[in-house]
Amino acid sequence: MPLKDFITYIKKAVTKHAAHIYLEQKSGAKDDAITTVKLDLNKLDQQVPANREQYLNFFIATKVLGKQDSFYDEENDSYAIEGSGGRQDQESVERIALRIISKTPDKSIQTLFKKIRNQLKKDPEIGIGIAGDSALHKNYFYQKNLAGKLVFKTDFHNDKAPLITII
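RESULT FIELD:
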């Protein structure tokens, strides 16, 4: 699912749980420092490029991040879900992977993570299960309306990475 579509899809759950979505961006300076920017959920078209740069993640958090803070810091990691993927071009779309960062997450982020997963499971427009040898493949979700229209990729910037096949 493209990242903009995914954010729109989970917007109600994010709002209900008083959470925020952050996007990593390169600063454009010579040092190419990565900054984390809080998204305005009403201005996604201006803030979320379809084909973001490689290795840039997004975060769903139940805590507001300070300017100099990181979601990987001990005081913030228990309130955040790390997301990767969601890049898109005319021919393909990259899978989105979500994980709770902390081994001891706050209850608020656990609840939100479960809410997102359950929303995906119950939606008739979302399929579940892709071909593969791993037990994890049965837990992958995909948009049914994109199956057969776009190539599903595991890594958008690695042409040698395996493609995703719907079962």
